[in-house]
Amino acid sequence: MSNLSTREAGRVPDRRVSEAPPSLWRQAIQQLSKNKMAMAGFIFVIFMLVACFIGPLFSPYADGKVNILIKHQPPSAKHWLGTDHLGRDVLTRLLQAGRISLTVGLASMALSMTIGTVLGIISGYYRGIVDQLIMRIADLLFTIPGIPILFIMGFLMSEWKVPTDYRLYLVMVMLSLIGWPGVARLVRSQMLTLREREYMQAADVLGLSDRRKLFHHLLPNVFPLLIVIGTLGIGGAILAESALSFFGLGVMPPTPSWGNMIDAANNLIDFEKRPWLWIPPGLAIFATVIAINVFGDGLRDVLDPKKQTSR
Amino acid sequence: MNPLIEINHLSTHFHTGSGTVKAVDDVSFRIHPGETVCIVGESGCGKSITAMSIMGLVEGPHGKVVNGSIQFDGKDLLRISKEELRRIRGNDISIIFQEPMSSLNPVITIGKQIMEPLMIHQRLSKKQAYARALELIELVGIPRAEQIAESYPHQLSGGMLQRIMIAIAISCEPKLLIADEPTTALDVTIQAQVLETLRQSKEQSNMSIMLITHDLGVVAEMADYVIVMYAGKIVEEGEVTELFERPKHPYTQGLLRSKPIIGQRTEELFSIPGQVPNPLELTESCYFHDRCDSCMDICRTRQPELKQVSASQRAACWLYEEEAQHE
């Protein structure tokens, strides 16, 4: 026993010399891996991504050929989730739709995060007239509820006969347009406290340029926050896209998306007699968004310093 | 010898809801190349604000440098453009703050933070800057430089961080280093190490140091020239040995008496009676008069000027003014 303890004691300083202390990120990842719910969410999201992006490659129905002869078939060994009103395989379409929905979610989130972060940093750091201008625009976008704006923009797209291929990208832009004010406000509020920190004064007296201060010193300080709201934002964007497509104002058929697949529930016969048409996309939206939110919550727990109680 | 920096009639005021606070009131001094000047005084006497004014850090809606000039390298720091000031900061003049823990960005590695001014001011490449950063870490007496460079601030102790701050401050070999109470937040053993680091780096590059402190022990150890401030004004200044041996101003005398002397047994340590006056209520008078043992009538109504009282000493006190009048 005593032998062991002396050996241990001798080893402790050694280890300190040889091993760099774990970085903040590694600590966070370690903590996160202990949160079972968050990990389950994370694994499910990864599973969805893999299934949607790789799955259709293995499907014999990936070309989406219309075959009226086999329309409205219930699930069978040949078509696991049945076929739709044009005889297309629902499972394949579901995965292809997932591609679109997840891409729209990720891309519009990335876009709104970028816009929101840059504007938030600028308005929080410089204050004054720039801040007023940016924040009043954000307020303006806040005063109008999101869904009506999206509807109006969706109608406009239909009115101007935007080609189906472009609609997808326009939907992303629309979603980020209503998404950035929230991000900008959060980032700005963080900036207001961060800019007063002593290390920012220290950066000031080192003669760093504004650009350097903003994007090298302040931005890394809001990264944890950005990751959390970004993750939660994906879920929101997927939901918004689905709602829009459900009403026929977002992604237009034949391009599949989870939202426009549920559109089948709009039809009483489909709703009552052919649940395989609308239950799978509904479940996909539900499960994906829940998984993303659970994962985002777990991330918040490890990354948000204000919530950290014990280390 | 030409002074490195010459501060003339510097006044920095803060406008608050209940009146104007003259945090720095008509302060003039100069620092020669290679000289260490200590600014001493109790909390709130304007030491730090003087340093902040030099660095151009007094800003915002309330504080303002209302008068004076700061001549550095033929330029008036108070009147140059922001861009010019940016080039001087961190390169020719750098500053160390009191709190090392909060003066480093918590999410950037130590190495990157040392490299930054090198890459900006000295235009070093990333590789060169990294090599120089490792050198600097070792120069300030921290072993295992490579590992330290990869660490984040929260992984180091206060003493180490303060030495990192020194490393950053001296990285571009500034002509003037302002150290605003660099040892106050550290414990005594570390204090000595940090001061030693400062002294060594000073000897290596012949830079000047403006050391702000309220610790007379630090002054005795580091200073060539001492400036004593009280309520925003300089009350006495002089060469360190002379000022310590023959303090003229009653405030300086009080300060020196309130320091414990090793080998001398006293019942209770001397302290100057009273409080620092409320800066809002100052009227034309010697600001020290109500705490002064040798207060006279004139002290209550008129402000003494800083006058030469001996070969190398200047003091602002009516005691010496009268002596001068008698002669």
UniProtKB/TrEMBL annotation, chain B:
Molecular function (Gene Ontology), one example: ATP hydrolysis activity
Please give the InterPro entries that the UniProt record associates with this protein: AAA+_ATPase, ABC_Ni/Peptide_Import, ABC_transporter-like_ATP-bd, ABC_transporter-like_CS, Oligopep_ABC_C, P-loop_NTPase
Gene3D superfamilies associated with the record: P-loop containing nucleotide triphosphate hydrolases (3.40.50.300)
Q: Name one GO cellular component term.
A: plasma membrane
Q: What membrane topology is given?
A: Peripheral membrane protein
Ranges of residues in domain ABC transporter: 5-256
Q: What family is this? A: Belongs to the ABC transporter superfamily.
Q: What is this protein called?
A: Dipeptide/oligopeptide/nickel ABC transporter ATP-binding protein
State the organism named in the record.
Paenibacillus campinasensis
Taxonomic placement: Bacteria, Bacillati, Bacillota, Bacilli, Bacillales
